[in-house]
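Proteins fold reproducibly. Next comes a concrete instance:

***
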Amino acid sequence: MRVCRTTYAVNPSPTALTIGNFDGVHRGHQAMLARLRERARPLGLQACVLTFEPHPLELFSPQTAPTRLTSLREKLELLAAHGVECVQVCRFNRDYASRSPQDFIEQHLLAGLRMRWLLIGDDFRFGARRAGDFALLQEASRKHGFGLEAMPTVAQDGVRVSSSAVRAALAAGRLAEAEALLGRPYSISGRVVHGDKLGRQIGYPTANVQLRHNRPPLSGIFAVRTFDAQGRSYDGAASLGLRPTVDDSGLAKLEVHLFDFAGNLYGQHLRIDFLHKIRDEEKFADLDALKARIARDCEIAKELLAAKERA
């Protein structure tokens, strides 16, 4: 998959295009990508996605911007897995946000991305003050001769599939609901970095996975399955949150204790699938109490993971 990070570069091939943040690449996004591929192929076009970095709300309202479901790397990996041939990562800043809808269409989409067919979501707005809408795109389609289609809402068990719905399910610990909306278990990927080695001291060594953002969409203690770069999987228990017993930094950390594992993971890139929530974070009186609770968490995690295998 070709990734371009230069907003004004000219794409080498004409494109069938869809536009959005694609945070989480959930079932709704996947339906859009399937339709994109379906139309690109007979038209002889390259299936292309235009996405934004950072999320526009992180620029305009950082205090109320939604937590991210995926880092940029994770998003790109998921887009590639769903058959996208090229992605333009648009650096979203105030200058870019001030562009008129007409300039966005004519200079960016038509001249830069060489767009010949466009698919948008039913709530898509664009350009300065979000003035651009489907009606404006219809007018531009007639004027410039590109194909245009709006994707209807995708629902899962009567729930509109959206990044917001996934966030709500994760925040409430409803991992099965999040998995249904995503079409896969929710996961976080990152590189293993050095921590304070406390887990090793109390008999439960952990892989400390680097977080790209300090506001993960879920927190607590979880039963997880971890995958390394070679695709090998390891069952374990994970803590994601602020570690109130031993840390007052206010920084979220992801620590994963792998069952039946011996080796050095430092520097490796891992993907952690969150399969069951065991409990919320707690502050314990001392390390002995914490250690006893970790032992119980690990037993619960093993039971939950074994039951999932039998299901």
In short: The domain at 2-159 is CATH 3.40.50.620 (Rossmann fold). The mean pLDDT is 92.
